[in-house]
Amino acid sequence: MTKPVATLGILGGGQLGRMLAMAAARLGIDAHIYCPDDNAPAARVSARATVAGYDDERALAAFAGSVEAITTEFENVPAATARFLADRVPVHPSAAALEIAQDRVAEKSFLNKIGIDTAPWRAIDGLDDLTTALTEIGPRGILKTRRLGYDGKGQVRLDGPQDAAEAFAAMAGAPAILEGLAAFEREISVIAARGQDGTVRCYDPGENRHSDGILRETRVPAAIDTATHDTALAMAERIATALDYVGVIGVEMFAMADGALWVNEIAPRVHNTGHWTIEGCAVSQFEQHVRAVCGLPLGDPARHSDAVMHNLIGDDIDTVPALLAEAGAALHLYGKGEARPGRKMGHVTRLS
Amino acid sequence: MTKPVATLGILGGGQLGRMLAMAAARLGIDAHIYCPDDNAPAARVSARATVAGYDDERALAAFAGSVEAITTEFENVPAATARFLADRVPVHPSAAALEIAQDRVAEKSFLNKIGIDTAPWRAIDGLDDLTTALTEIGPRGILKTRRLGYDGKGQVRLDGPQDAAEAFAAMAGAPAILEGLAAFEREISVIAARGQDGTVRCYDPGENRHSDGILRETRVPAAIDTATHDTALAMAERIATALDYVGVIGVEMFAMADGALWVNEIAPRVHNTGHWTIEGCAVSQFEQHVRAVCGLPLGDPARHSDAVMHNLIGDDIDTVPALLAEAGAALHLYGKGEARPGRKMGHVTRLS
User: Fold this and answer.
1) Measured distance CA(B184)–CA(B256) in Å, rounded
2) Which residues of chain A neighbour B47 with C-beta distances below 8 Å?
3) Residues A193 and A165 in one domain
4) A2 within some domain
5) Residues 272-311, chain A, touching B (beta carbon < 8 A)
6) What pLDDT, in 10s, does the model give residues A35-47?
7) What beta strand segments (E) does chain A contain?
8) Closest Cα of chain B to A102: distance in Å?
9) Which A residues 25-64 touch B at CB under 8 Å?
10) Residue in A25, A304, A321 nearest the CB of B45
11) Residues from chain A contacting residue B297 (CB–CB below 8 Å)
């Protein structure tokens, strides 16, 4: 156990930061939220908050001086911000890990390099690249911006070469990537944690259902066989170890009809598909992440129950009265004011 | 459902307020802590905090103006404070309920009046009263201050008339009560909740082990038969209803050898013997209390697991490294600086 952390700095103020701050509090650790937005959900459950930009070096330096460790709740914290802070106080995950996850080309190159399968892909910098790529990796695919996409934003599906020009125009000049369509049987994810001593612990894979690019449901256990389960965990461990990662990492995978697993995406943070661990395990993904980034030993990820987690998105918030009245429903609301379409307002977990 | 509560005011800043604030946050409700102590554990997980005395009417009025509902984390909030606030915003539990629980004579008179057994008792205002009481209710008993005792403080055990003078002197002139010793088989407690519509929901009784007047362990289920279980719940419901109570109330009982149940104490608040509900139920006692005082429907108190909760008191904090490494141990630390003897530093719950 390294020097105990009295205050953990968290970059970002959304619901993931909010649940991290509450997990830190459960371990007696204060949270200090750093976030450009006033009145962020995470700040409202934290001992301290700084409202400033990620390029405000004076505010960043003061923030670093007020905490013993720093982590992030989202992968798009500028790597330069993480580097600036890491000169002053331990920052996990590292700027290098963030950089890989921030760029879909860097991410897929990294994965393939360490022997992990992905959908076929090509970097797309011009319409010519796209036309060529469609002939090389198949007529259908998804064109995505290399950076800053989430919840299906910055993505266009192509059903053939005829869609190329419009899809390319939708990227608005941003560097892009074409990913071949994965004809998967199911989407699963592994929530892995790696401690400062290199220990890796994985939760049981969840099986996920998305619609409109947004996660709707995670169910554990996933309907996969033991061999697939073991392979999925081994892949997550290989990724975390190759990144020299510290903290929780979410690894989304496609389970293919032939038994192969392709990694879709890695998220260097606590993950929406791991929310079920709050009720399903003695140590949630949030506490596990806090433990890792604070240099504490990882907890046991064993699951004591089966679980199904549903996100409450946009108007789903109108179901809250029914959820409050439903026996066995564990409800989480994020304290966001306005229920815009596609906005994650909360989630509900049911154990069985 | 009454007008939704955006911010819940909580009087008191200790660990109970801390866990209440986190439960409120889970439902998207901000907490505003009002407490005379700077840097209170509850304030560090809350959206707002006011540091002021319970008799500071200006601060109280501003506090009332900033919240839609108010509750307390401890029973010794002055009733005058609760009344002052209740003129401005709904306050639960009521000043009347607090007053009964604040005075052991008022509490026992109330209980006996509604047909609930207690240990035999006498109000003690002078040494003569004590001498007489010892002849009437038996030679052994516990002399307690009528007000402000907790965790065994303000209590002296008498093993016969020879101890009377010294015990009486220990009360230092404070009004007191003599309680006959209860030769109980076990101590149990019922955590009940009553909603604003009069609905009562009880968690399964816990079986408690105290030492030196401080709770060490709660275990559910308690080793009691079905009839005792049902009687215990019915008694808790009768108490909550007779008080026209809103919120969670802890009812400590002695299970006697002859099958009788004597109520030892009522606590008009979330209760240490209900901490196991955080892991053991979909809706914890903290969320249940928040629901009740905010006018939301009560949740289902069904228990999905057996549980054992241990308090971490004083030096027990030294076991934290072992607890962090223990599979299945759900650890809660309260963020208190100094581990003084007898101070509750945290707790750990194990499900089975």
Assistant:
1) 4
2) 43-45
3) no
4) no
5) 279, 282-283, 291, 296-297, 299-300, 302, 304-305
6) 999 989 999 999 9
7) 7-11, 30-35, 48-51, 69-72, 121-124, 141-145, 155-158, 176-180, 184-194, 200-202, 206-211, 214-220, 247-256, 261-267, 307-313, 329-333, 344-351
8) 30
9) 25-30, 43-47
10) A25
11) 321, 324-325
Task: Give the nearest partner residue to A22 out of B45, B331, B346, using CB atoms.
Answer: B45
Q: What is the pLDDT of residue B288?
A: 98
CB contact under 8 A, A304 and B305: yes
Structure tokens at B183: 């030769």
C-alpha closest to that of A311 among A213, A187, A217: A217
User: Which percentage of chain B shows pLDDT scores above 70?
Assistant: 98
Q: How confident is the model at residue B151 (pLDDT cuts 50, 70, 90)?
A: low
Give the CATH number, domain containing residue A338.
3.30.470.20
Please say if the pLDDT value at position B62 is more than 70. yes
Q: How confident is the model at residue B150 (pLDDT cuts 50, 70, 90)?
A: low
Give yes or no for a contact between A209 and A188, defined as CB atoms under 8 angstroms apart: no
Amino acid letter at B242? A
B336/B230 same-domain check: yes
What is the value of ipTM here, to two decimals?
0.94
Average pLDDT over residues A98-126: 96
Contacts of A332 in chain B (CB under 8 A): 26
Question: What's the CA angle centered on B269, arms B105 and A334, to 5 degrees?
Answer: 170
User: Both B219 and B337 in a single domain?
Assistant: yes
Q: Which domain holds residue A176?
A: 120-180
Q: Is B325 on the interface with A (CB under 8 A)?
A: yes
For residue B329, what are the β-bridge partners? B350
Q: Max alpha carbon distance in chain B (Å)? A: 59
Q: In this complex, is the C-beta atom of B257 within 8 Å of any C-beta atom belonging to chain A?
A: no
Predicted TM-score of the model (pTM): 0.95
Position of tokens 């819940």?
B8
